[in-house]
Design goal:
36% of the residues lie in helices and 23% in strands. The chain is of the alpha/beta class. It has an 8-stranded mixed beta sheet with strand order 1-2-6-3-7-16-8-15, with helices on both faces. It has a 4-stranded antiparallel beta sheet with strand order 11-12-10-13. Strands 4-5 form a two-stranded antiparallel sheet. Strand 11 (248-257) and strand 12 form a beta hairpin.
């Protein structure tokens, strides 16, 4: 490992010790800003909450490319899959010091890698033929931070041509998966308000019946173990299996009451492709009407799916295969149906891709599976991610600048 890689591992561990929930990323943002200023970047803090925007101008005029990393941790009581913990402790010496809060999704690694890419390219800005905008985003878990940062208009003022990001995944460390045309589902939140009245027993039966009908919409079912998690993730790499899962709907449902005491069924749909949203809304509205109830949409329109550019993902995969070796690049051919990602909004501003960074090490027992209680990552993936993204970003600036001329 290089001196920088050792430093970035320590940075990741410091962030891991002090995880911060969505909207509370003050310490993490301050640490990031300090690192980027020391590297000579132009840094703006407080962007859409605790977001950090850092700009690196290269040695020549050219286009702008965005690289995004997310910073928030999760509440383990509500945002982790209920798989049993391993008997091994992989973060001994740098475990979370905040009760019920932890980096179970790998955002601590994402942040360390983003800092590493910025520092690496700042030290050798001659190869940067344009401008790089490093976005360190808060509040990804509730799908709020990207909208808040973009709402300031600061990213758009840079007129980015492309956007890129990494996310940890349970693939082998040393690999990166590209998914041309695929990505992660969109999400829709729906509430069916049912007739209540004085007969609580009847309301409960209606509620149960509606919930059973809603569950029939689910095409993927629950994950039952880490092995099941791994198998379903690996399925996106198998061309034959992936061909059979081009559409998916994952359903989470619960019972609740409205403020005035009416019984209700809460529903969260994760849908791929997003063009299915209207059809599914119509189906649920019919179910509600048949039960004598009505529909509410607490968050308005469905949140869009994250869709990677076919052309830019393919170009990235070809570059990474040449730069890092063909065995280091895997190709995803379907959407992973269980998670959503607000990087989708950055891709609407400027096309690009999110890549899956392999962080698993089966020999040591590190599962690399985000949102599991014993999520653990091979920290050698940090250096691999830095090398891959630093090379890709400079390659893309050169490619865009060469085809379009100076655009800054």
């Amino acid at each position: 490992m290089t001196i920088l890689e050792d430093y970035l591992i320590e940075l990741r561990r410091e962030i891991h010790r002090h995880p911060e929930l969505a909207g509370e990323e003050r310490q993490t943002a301050g640490l990031v800003a300090e690192q980027l200023r020391a590297a000579g970047l132009e840094v703006t803090t407080g962007v859409g909450g605790h977001g950090v925007l850092a700009v690196l101008d290269g040695s020549a005029d050219g286009p702008t490319v965005v690289y995004r990393a997310d910073m928030d941790a999760v509440d383990v009581r509500y945002n982790s899959l209920p798989f049993p913990r391993s008997s091994r402790v992989f973060d001994e010496g740098f475990a979370s010091r905040v009760p019920d809060v932890a980096h179970l999704c790998g955002h601590d690694l994402h942040t360390a890698i983003g800092v590493g890419v910025a520092r690496t390219l700042a030290q050798d800005s001659d190869q940067v033929r344009g401008r790089l905008a490093f976005v360190f985003q808060p509040a990804e878990e509730p799908l709020q931070g990207a909208r808040a940062m973009l709402g300031t208009g600061l990213v758009q003022k840079l007129a980015p041509k492309e956007s890129y990001a990494l996310h940890c995944a349970p693939f082998p460390a040393g690999t990166i998966t590209v998914s041309p045309g695929y990505g992660l589902p969109g999400v829709d939140n729906i509430r069916i308000v049912l007739p209540g009245g004085d007969n609580a027993a009847v309301a409960a039966e209606v509620q149960k019946a509606v919930a059973a009908e809603v569950q029939k919409i689910d095409t993927v079912g629950l994950l039952e173990s880490v092995d099941d998690y791994h198998a379903r993730f690996l399925a996106v790499l198998d061309p034959q299996i992936a061909a059979s899962i081009q559409e998916s709907v994952s359903v989470i449902q619960w019972t609740e009451q409205t403020e005035d005491g009416q019984p209700a069924v809460g529903i969260m749909l994760k849908v791929w492709p997003q063009e299915r949203f209207p059809q599914l809304r119509d189906r649920i509205e019919r179910l509600a009407a048949e039960a004598g109830g009505h529909i509410e949409y607490p968050y308005g329109d469905a949140f869009p799916a994250m869709v990677n550019s076919v052309d830019l993902s393919t170009a990235a995969g070809q570059y990474l295969g040449t730069a890092l070796g063909p065995d280091s690049v895997l190709w995803g051919r379907a959407s992973w149906p269980y998670n959503c990602e607000d990087f989708a909004l950055f891709l609407k501003e400027a096309p690009g891709a999110m890549f899956y960074l392999g962080v698993a090490d089966t020999e040591s027992g590190m599962n690399g599976a985000p949102h599991t209680l014993d999520f653990a990552a091979d920290e050698r993936a940090i250096g691999h991610g830095v090398r891959a993204m630093a090379g890709l970003l400079t390659h893309r600036l050169a490619a865009i600048g060469g085809s379009q001329g100076s655009t800054r």
